Amino acid sequence: MVPIGTKKSVIGKCISTKSVSSDDRNDITHLYKHPEGSEEERMAVRCAVEHGSRPYTYDQDEKPDDVQLQIETEDEVMIGQNFDVKILVANKSSEKRTVDIYISTHACHYTGVPIRNSKLKAEHIDLIIDGNEDLDVKMKVSSADYLDKLVDQTCMKIYTMAKVRETNQMWSDQDDFSVETPDLVLDSEGEIRVGKPFKVKVYLKNPLPKKLTSCTLAVEGPGLQRPKVIKTRDVSPNGELKTEIQLSPRKAGKRVVIVSFDADQISQITGSLNIQVNK
């Protein structure tokens, strides 16, 4: 078995915990490993490998590939928008190269496992690149390609393969990608007291050019509300949902209201609101 590519810096990124007194992410990667690419980090990896099942991994000679490829996707794409999958190609040799590139996108679960009949779009691209030249190729993915096929957390997986005809160099890679969903905004006004009903305002902007149907709000909050599901009206294309939920707190202290919006066209949009309940 011959490896066709090695990725040396994709493991151990973004080791996280919840911040104290807030819902923000606290990055604690530096507490568990040396900075990526540092001499200490490379020494730690080499030491671990030498005590593993393949102790001679770093003794093998590696021939550098003269054509380098990399997947690049857009950082922020709202659900309902089109997006591009870009492959950056750099020819480090002084000679012309012909590269066969295959790109495909698939719908998948949040675990990264593709769903059945998951392919959204695929393209085969033939690229001729001159020596010491950098180019990029794009596959355009429209909202019609993915909108009715996504499952939990709007996750997609991008697969790419390439072959350089002149050298038989092979390359493959994959990337996880998801489109963003709109914020579910929650708000309340005035002092909140035990046993006194209060209202939580709910706001959602529909990002899709189609009506949202069979809309529901799932509401819960320990000490505030037993879990319940509320049916609400349809939301017009690119329209807004504005509604109120009445709650009656049973216990004093810091509480959290959690609301999740679901519709046939879009789901798992969640918002939370921290409140103080007084006696």
Note down, in words, how this protein is organized:
The protein has 279 residues and is mainly beta. It is 6% helix and 47% strand. It contains 2 helices and 17 strands. The strands form 5 sheets. A 5-stranded mixed sheet has the order 11-17-16-13-14, with no helix packed on it. Strand 13 (216-221) and strand 14 (225-231) form a beta hairpin. The radius of gyration is 25 Å and the shape is flat. The relative contact order is 0.13.
Summed up:
By secondary structure, this protein is mainly beta. It contains two helices and 17 strands. The protein has helices at residues 39-50, 143-146, and strands at 16-18, 25-27, 67-73, 83-91, 97-108, 114-129, 134-141, 155-164, 170-178, 185-187, 192-193, 198-205, 216-221, 225-231, 240-247, 253-262, 269-278.
